């Protein structure tokens, strides 16, 4: 079912990708199924952007199949500080351009993107197609679509979540499907930490999840992808062959590498966060005393706009405190930048061990909020 | 007079300032708006530029400028009450105000 791109296929694809305005003339009669050879979340999200921006979908529909190595993906208007707890070194954080909530991807999860013109945007139909494919594969599977556009297993476990983006003329609906993802990592990274954040960013709705593999250990991601592609081809009466594409191929997808880079910038991932405020009180333990600290910050475009730190009087020299607050204003709400800043500020302080250790303790606590 | 684009944004110009919003058809199609992403005051827009997005039921729907001009005001009420776009798309649910480069 899955073929390496034949030369003919490649040329057809080039035709579609390079002459979007010339309309679509091909034997694949109005539909295309493509699968990414990459597991990089940024590259794959860039493919979605590219198709949305450059392909003429007037008489064409596209199904894009992709999987990512471990990544947390937040929605367009979400707050990453609110959504994920553990910054693990081998888990990437990405912000997609569609709405909705936060999801965890790994190779045990498959992603499906349904591209159409804006007029033919139809999420329910797409999800029913997926359910039909699953039932064709395993007739006894108890799967159904909810009003919230989730797919549930056994009436209670979420196995798929949906999000969408509507552009000027094109639209896409994408969804996940849990086959054999690592649920322990999923639940540990999607914990919502309470750290005093107040914002109107779109919140995630937590759900109990389950892998299809748990229901039927004979199921693999490949089987699911094939079944869904087959059902898509049948329903839309198109060629059932899946064309592999390389998201790094600048010849096939001119401009794709710029899109990939943009998705990885701090400005996109963190800077696009809707304005929020942090307001928190905590105890700091220093030698034999317990200190009450209050921190208030307004963060806009990921940068600290306004900052206030309430400390017990004279615990640190007031001039130093106000210097800290002043310097924090305008920098990124980011542990690395803040660490660099406070280290620099410390250098201009008198060499006083007591002072240094108090300063370090305070700054560590402030940085932990980020 | 309120003019409509084919994408269901409307614009109403008075004294050189255009107020932009979305039509009733558009707000109905969107469903309940939960978030409005609007540009900064001072942003210069060309006709058809993407100037923001509305999010509803997990779909981010882009907004396109019906005019060329500069953003002078954004509807701050939408931050806490994005549902105004649904309840009053022609009045309280306006999105941005902008100067008009080519009154036409």
From TrEMBL, chain A:
Gene3D superfamilies: Bira Bifunctional Protein, Domain 2, CO dehydrogenase flavoprotein, C-terminal domain. Pathway: Protein modification; protein lipoylation via exogenous pathway; protein N(6)-(lipoyl)lysine from lipoate: step 2/2. Belongs to the LplA family. It is found in: Mitochondrion. It is an enzyme of class 2 (transferase). GO terms for biological process: protein lipoylation. One of its GO terms (molecular function) is lipoyltransferase activity. Keywords: Acyltransferase, Mitochondrion, Transferase, Transit peptide. InterPro entries: aa-tRNA-synth_II/BPL/LPL, BPL_LPL_catalytic, LipoylTrfase_LipoateP_Ligase. Residues 57-240 form the BPL/LPL catalytic domain. This is Lipoyl amidotransferase LIPT1, mitochondrial. Pfam families: LplA-B_cat (PF21948). It catalyses: N(6)-[(R)-lipoyl]-L-lysyl-[glycine-cleavage complex H protein] + L-lysyl-[lipoyl-carrier protein] = L-lysyl-[glycine-cleavage complex H protein] + N(6)-[(R)-lipoyl]-L-lysyl-[lipoyl-carrier protein]; (R)-lipoyl-5'-AMP + L-lysyl-[lipoyl-carrier protein] = N(6)-[(R)-lipoyl]-L-lysyl-[lipoyl-carrier protein] + AMP + 2 H(+). One of its GO terms (cellular component) is mitochondrion. Lipoyl amidotransferase that catalyzes the transfer of lipoyl moieties from lipoyl-protein H of the glycine cleavage system (lipoyl-GCSH) to E2 subunits of the pyruvate dehydrogenase complex (PDCE2). Unable to catalyze the transfer of octanoyl from octanoyl-GCSH to PDCE2. In vitro, it is also able to catalyze the transfer of the lipoyl group from lipoyl-AMP to the specific lysine residue of lipoyl domains of lipoate-dependent enzymes but this reaction may not be physiologically relevant. The keyword Transmembrane helix does not apply. Its EC number is 2.3.1.200.
Automatic annotation (TrEMBL), chain B:
Keywords: Lipoyl, Mitochondrion, Transit peptide. Binds 1 lipoyl cofactor covalently. Transmembrane segments: none annotated. Pfam families: GCV_H (PF01597). The modification N6-lipoyllysine is found at residue 58. It comes from the Eukaryota. SUPFAM superfamilies: Single hybrid motif. Residues 17-99 form the Lipoyl-binding domain. GO terms for cellular component: glycine cleavage complex; mitochondrion. It is found in: Mitochondrion. GO terms for biological process: glycine decarboxylation via glycine cleavage system; protein lipoylation. Its cofactor is (R)-lipoate. Belongs to the GcvH family. The glycine cleavage system is composed of four proteins: P, T, L and H. NCBIfam families: gcvH, PRK01202.1. The H protein shuttles the methylamine group of glycine from the P protein to the T protein. The glycine cleavage system catalyzes the degradation of glycine. The H protein (GCSH) shuttles the methylamine group of glycine from the P protein (GLDC) to the T protein (GCST). Has a pivotal role in the lipoylation of enzymes involved in cellular energetics such as the mitochondrial dihydrolipoyllysine-residue acetyltransferase component of pyruvate dehydrogenase complex (DLAT), and the mitochondrial dihydrolipoyllysine-residue succinyltransferase component of 2-oxoglutarate dehydrogenase complex (DLST). This is Glycine cleavage system H protein. It comes from Buceros rhinoceros silvestris.
């Amino acid at each position: 079912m899955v073929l390496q791109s034949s030369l003919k296929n490649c040329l057809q694809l080039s035709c579609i990708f390079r002459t979007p305005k010339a309309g679509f003339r091909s034997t694949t009669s109005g539909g295309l199924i493509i699968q990414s050879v990459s597991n990089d979340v940024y590259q794959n999200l860039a493919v979605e952007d590219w198709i949305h921006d450059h392909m003429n979908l007037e008489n064409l529909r596209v199904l894009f199949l992709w999987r990512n190595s471990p990544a947390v993906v937040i929605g367009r208007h979400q707050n990453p500080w609110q959504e994920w707890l553990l910054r693990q070194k081998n888990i990437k954080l990405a912000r997609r351009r569609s709405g909705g909530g936060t999801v965890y991807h790994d190779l045990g999860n498959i992603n499906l993107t349904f591209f159409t013109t804006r007029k033919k945007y139809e999420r329910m139909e797409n999800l029913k197609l997926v359910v039909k494919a699953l039932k064709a594969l395993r007739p006894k599977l108890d799967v159904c679509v909810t009003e919230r556009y989730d797919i549930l297993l056994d009436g209670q476990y979420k196995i798929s979540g949906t999000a969408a983006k509507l552009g000027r003329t094109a639209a896409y609906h994408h969804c996940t499907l849990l086959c054999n993802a690592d649920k322990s990592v999923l639940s540990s990274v999607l914990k919502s930490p309470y750290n005093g954040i107040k914002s109107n960013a779109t919140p995630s709705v937590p759900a109990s999840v389950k892998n299809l593999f748990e229901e039927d250990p004979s199921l693999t991601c490949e089987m699911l992808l094939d079944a869904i592609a087959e059902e898509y081809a049948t329903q839309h009466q198109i060629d059932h062959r899946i064309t592999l594409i390389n998201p790094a191929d600048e010849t096939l997808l001119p401009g794709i590498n710029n899109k990939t880079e943009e998705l990885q910038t701090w400005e996109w991932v963190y800077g696009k966060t809707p304005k929020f405020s942090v307001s928190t009180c905590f105890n700091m333990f220093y030698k034999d005393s317990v200190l009450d600290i209050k921190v208030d910050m307004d963060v806009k475009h990921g940068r600290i706009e306004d900052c206030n730190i309430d400390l017990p009087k004279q615990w640190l020299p007031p001039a130093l405190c106000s210097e800290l607050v002043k310097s924090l204003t305008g920098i990124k709400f980011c542990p690395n930048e803040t660490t660099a800043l406070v280290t620099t500020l410390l250098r201009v302080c008198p060499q006083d061990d007591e002072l240094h250790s108090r300063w370090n303790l305070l700054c560590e606590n402030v940085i932990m909020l980020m | 007079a309120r003019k409509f684009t084919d994408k269901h944004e409307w614009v109403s110009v008075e004294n050189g300032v255009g107020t932009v919003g979305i039509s009733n058809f558009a707000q109905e199609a969107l469903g309940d708006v939960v978030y409005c992403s609007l540009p900064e005051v001072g942003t210069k827009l060309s006709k058809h530029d993407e100037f923001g997005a509305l999010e509803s039921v997990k779909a981010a729907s882009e907004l396109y400028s019906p005019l060329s001009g500069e953003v002078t005001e954004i509807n701050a009420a939408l931050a806490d009450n994005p549902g105004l776009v649904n309840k009053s798309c022609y009045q309280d649910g306006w999105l941005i105000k902008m100067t008009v480069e080519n009154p036409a």
